[in-house]
Structures are given as C-alpha cells and as structure tokens.
Amino acid sequence: MLTASVDTLLSPLLSLAQTTHGNGVIAVADIHPGDILVRVPASLCITARRARRTPGVAHLLEATHQVEAHVAIAVWLMHAVHVRPPSHVPWLDTLPETFDCTLSWSAAEVAQLQASPSRRRAEAIQQWAGEEWRRIFEPPPDVTSRTGWSTPAFKASRARFDWALCAVWSRSFQYRCGTDDCDGDPNASGGVWRVLSPVADLLNHAAPAQSTARLEIRAHDAMPERWHSVDEAQRQFAQQLFKARAEVGEPADAMRRAEWRWRREEVEAAEAAEGTEEALLLLASRPIAVGEAAELDYGARANAEMLTTHGFATLDNPHEELPLALAPSADDELGPIKSKILAAGNITSPFALSVAALSSDSDLLVALRLLVATPVELKQYAGAFKGERLSARNERRWRQMLTTRVTAMLEAAEAQTDAAHDEELLRLQDGLSGRERMAVVTRLGEKRLLRSILAELERRRAEVTASTSSNVGGG
Fold first, then answer.
1. What is the dihedral of CA 350, 353, 356, 359, to 10 degrees?
2. CA pair distance 172, 161, nearest whole angstrom
3. What are phi and psi of 296, to 5 degrees?
4. CA distance linking residue 331 with residue 371, whole number of Å
5. For residue 460, which of 399, 388, 394, 406 has the smallest C-alpha distance?
C-alpha cells in the first residue's frame, strides 16, 4: 500500500532538518534543475471531492448547503486524525499541535495588529469560522431530521475545527483548473482546485529569488479537477520516464543510486495502483547545493494575507499592498456615469494600493483618473483604460485626492505607535512572543508602505512643479 510517509514521497537527495524557518527540508546531495524533490500520487492527496466521498464525513457536509473546498478538507482532516487511515498515519504524525494563523489568535493578540486591515480580516474570519462550525456540527433540528445528520464520532470542538482550517490554509496548494469554471465542479471555486498534499507541505516559504522548488501537477488533460480517472496515456508516460532512466544505467554514486531506485519504485507503484500516475510534484527550479534548504515561493501576497493563512509575515515584503475603497463622491453629478464606466470595465473597489500601482495601467490608476474627471476628460475615458493620462489637471487632481486619503490612513495606522516605535520594538524584541512579533512586522510594513506612497506622490508633485518653473523661466 502506498503511504504518505516521508521516505516514500521525499527524494533520497533530501532530508528533514531544522532550518532558519523551523522544520524544513535540506539537500543531502547536489540537486540539479528538474530533479523531482517530492512526488505525491493523486490517490494520497486530499481534495474536497475526496472529503465528500469519505464515510463519516460525507453526511456532515451533505447536511449543509455547499461548503467551500477548504472547509470540506478541514472536516476530512478532523476525521482522519480520529480514524488514522493507514495510508496517511506517517504524515498525520508530522502535523503540529498548534498553528499560528490568526484564526487561532486571542483577542489580545489580534489587538496587536492595531488599525491594520489584517485585524479586521482576522476578526471577520474568526466570526465566519464560528458560523461554519455551528452550521456543520450543530445544525438545527429540522436539518438533522431531514438529512439524517448524526453526531460525528470524532472530536468536533470549535478549537479542533480552527486547527484543521489553519492546517489546510497553511499546507494546501491552489492550482488553476483546466477550464475557467473547473467544468462547473462544486469542489472548486474561482477557477481554483485546492489540494492538500502530504509531505509536499514540508517545504518552507522563500521569496522568488531564493526559491529552489516549483510546483507541477500531472493530471489527465492537464485537469486536476478530474483526478483519480484512469488514463492509459499517463501510464505510458510513467513507463517512458523509467525507461529513459534505465537506459542511462544505474549510477555509481551511492546517493544518486538511491535516487534512481526511488524513481523506479515510484513508477512501479504507479503501475500497481490505479490512477496514481497522476500526481502533485515539486521539482528543483535551480541547482540546490548540499546543506541548502529546498523551499517554495508561496506566491505574491501581502503580509496581511500571509498572516491570515500561514501565521507569518516578512519584513520588506515586495508584495505589500493595502485595500483602498474608492467611489464617486456623493455631490458628483457625473458619479452614476463614472460608476457605470468602471463597472463595464470590470474595475471594482477595493483597489490594491501600492507604489507600483501608481506607475502602471493598474485598476487603481484607472479608477483615480476617472473619479476626478471633468465632463470633457470623461469623453476620453477609453484612454484611462490604456494607461494614458487624461490631462495635466486630471493628474494633479487624483494625486491631491490620493494624498488626502493616504494621509488619513497613515494617521489612523499610527494612532497607537508610529513606524519608528515599531522598528525599535523589533530591534529589542524583549518580551515579544512570536505572534506579537508577527503583528508588529505586519503593521510596520503597512505604515512603511503608506509613507512610501506619500513620498512618491510628493516626488511627482515636486517634479511637475520644477518642470513648470523651468518652462516659465525659459519663456
């Protein structure tokens, strides 16, 4: 039987170890680009579809209206911890007892986020999780009588539900479906298929420049939403992979020989177990030297999102951004027309506020230009969608409007502590718990971002003023 043990799914070229980010994976031999680091057959991965087909779980999910994929997988995990399926016991034993995603933070810990949007997000998600837990595990009598709902045999406390959700958020992968709507599959949402993959979840996060691994999913017709289907072409691909390795011959180097045998065994296992040739893989994206960590870029996300799902934040996050709600002012006679134009162009609030968004044809810049447009400028609105300026006056007006908004946001963000104070806290670190430190890192990053945006707006204003003065003097 295939099992989700580290030894069977992790390349012999890698080993579990303590890294700068905690438990992780390091290379014990030089690894080349394209080498398989982790290979998890689809039969061992957990998806919402699998959860809804699992005895002991299915009736809980059927008794409620459609739950999101990550919720279904979380309920499966709660059940698995209780029944301990042999195929997943080795992996289940690697899961920590606690996670640091903000769903598990106390009210006092959440308050450390001060005025950060991540605080509102944390509070909203905690409320949502409570409602989901009650809906699944404490349904009203009319639901239980109508659906045959029965009390679960496993530990179904709110704390356990929160733990499982954090595990799924921090350790699962989201992969684009083969079609825009995932063929209407109810187990996917937003065109994304969520997969909880044993052992692949052991790789820690790294910035794109430092990342050493990349994700690849092999599935029938490149559609992971159709996983677990039998396909002869995929089986032949696995056989060809082994044949190509066999033609080279068994390497002399002991470590490479172990890796060669591991590849052979994975193909033989795939041939023996129906559907397991479809798999989630992590491949080396660049050379990995002995002792170097194998790490994966978790994606271009702001600290507020990373904190919510993974429980950590990074200083100087290049993807930092803040949500900014924008709409026509109540006294703008052109407001209804501007709203229709933005809606027709699929430009919706809130917008991602960042320095980079001010230097491109971002949705934010399109909205800013249209919201301050005069009747004459609005006739040229198509240019805004192409990243074009509507007029010099229009540029000046949106910069003034944004400066006012960002100044107010910074004042609110620094009502309790300013950026300098937060920086000093991080330098000292005395008395800061891990969660408190992550809260300070998150709120500090946002304060720095707001200050950077104000500096950029001032730079542009000064640049225009200097240019105007130069032209006047030269006249």
1. 70
2. 16
3. -125, 135
4. 12
5. 399
Threshold 0.85, pTM exceeds: no
- Do 294 and 17 form a contact (C-beta atoms < 8 A)? no
Alpha-carbon distances of 386 from 160, 255, 363, 380, rounded to whole Å: 49, 55, 11, 11
Q: Are 41 and 276 spatial neighbours (Cβ–Cβ below 8 Å)?
A: yes
pLDDT tens digits along 239-282: 554 455 455 555 666 655 665 565 555 555 554 544 446 788 99
Answer for the pair 262, 13: CB distance below 8 angstroms, yes or no: no
Question: The tokens of 9 are what?
Answer: 């799914």
Q: In 3D, which of 358, 328, 349 has the Cα closest to residue 450?
A: 358
Tokens of 120: 């509102």
How far is residue 384's CA from residue 386's CA, in Å, rounded to a whole number? Answer: 5
Is 466 buried (19+), middle (13-18) or exposed (0-12) by CB count in 10 A? exposed
What are the angstrom distances between the C-alpha of 392 and each of 68, 164, 313, 335, 475? Answer: 47, 54, 39, 21, 19
Quote the tokens at residue 67.
């739950």
> Can you tell me which residue has the tokens 């959860």?
51
Under DSSP, the state recorded for 104 is: G
What one-letter code names the amino acid at 277? E
Say what angle helices 303-310 and 158-171 make with each other, to 10 degrees: 130
Instruction: Provide the residue type at 251 as one letter.
Output: P
Q: What DSSP state is assigned to residue 455?
A: H
- Identify which of 364, 363, 369 has the alpha carbon closest to the alpha carbon of residue 388: 369
Q: What is the DSSP letter of 66?
A: P
Letter for the amino acid at 360?
S
Does the bond joining 350 to the residue before it have cis omega, within 30 degrees of 0?
Answer: yes
**Residues 113-165 pLDDT 10s:** 999 999 999 999 999 999 999 999 988 887 777 766 778 888 899 999 999 99
